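Consider a typical record:
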Amino acid sequence: MIYKEFSFGGKKNPFGSFGAIIAMIGVLLLLFFIAKGIFTILSWAAPVLLILAAIFDYTVITDYLKFIGKLFKENPLFGIIASILTVFGFPVVAGFLFFRAFARKSLKNAIKKAEEKQKPKFTEYEEVEDDDIMILPKVERQQKTSTTTNKSNDYDELFK
């Protein structure tokens, strides 16, 4: 029977297999502090984001409130849980509503630009009132002659 041992950091590691556990705890702590910092920044920006969401597209906020009201009617327990999570997660909800309102506004602008490209464009013109400009001089008609008999035609000389 062959027995192989795999340890974190080599055989001379004083922590043995606990090194991996310590590294995992360190990574989780780092992720916790990053999430805490983002949540703190978002909590300060939440009122501004909510106001901007109302400016961009107020129907996003009314749709969200209608969604919470619908949850209360269909299942009161889920409605209570959703409203509690909305209160405690206000910064996240405000960020979500801002993102949704911004996306709707951008989509509406893109659709409006696409519709403007589809519309026919009319060119500006100027009406000419003087009829003398439109009178062309009369041109005399030349009789058709065969190309082999008439050697004086410069056009035929190009193809020789």
Remarks:
- The chain is about 65% helix and 0% strand.
- Residues 44 and 153 are 88 Å apart (CA to CA).
